[in-house]
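Let us practice reading a record.
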Amino acid sequence: MKVVLQPALVLHTRAWRDTSLLVELFTRDHGRVAVVAKGAKRSGRRSGSGMSALLQPFTPILCSWSGRSDLKNLTACESRLAAPRLAGKALYCGLYLNEILARLLQPEDANDVLFALYEQVLQQLAEGAELDLYLREFEYRLLIELGYGFELDVDGESGKPVEAGEDYQFHPDYGLILAANSGHARAPGYAGEDLLRWSAGEFDLPVRRCAKRLMREALRQHLGDRPLKSRELFNVH
């Protein structure tokens, strides 16, 4: 199997044996792909040092690979666009996105909508404002694209509209359900008023807090209990 000049973004890179790199790519038409860049760590003008500079997180590239196993051989790599300049908190936000994508995306399961969304949010993070808004929007749409989405303004169990004066809880099978019907009515929930304002595109401080808690709970159902390394570096979520 050969793939030629596929648009991709680098999720993660690590050393592989003495002179090579193991690279996790998010590609437009082939989803998450793991490749080995042989010789990429060698120094010198004619070696893979130029390729190594391209194979850094967040870098938009065109890449070619071959192989039938789960681990492909990278055969060519070239720049596609200028990499977004992420620094400070925006950098940790980007690392967080890369980590959840690497954990949640199935190998070679293409999703061009999610690919475009990821590329867009990296540019938004580089602008340096409203970071939590961009993260929440990406997390919510990520769940939708992976088939785990839920409505913010509909009770997923009854199908009735969310009411501003009620409290709701998250259920992994239904999404948001009326707290009184959850069997855990005393547990912390989500105010219907905040959910409706979030659904309407409002994002004041109470809505931001609600969105942060809800996305953390919803993603935990799929990420499992293993801690995210990016959260250990900086509390971006």
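A brief commentary: The longest strand covers residues 2-16.
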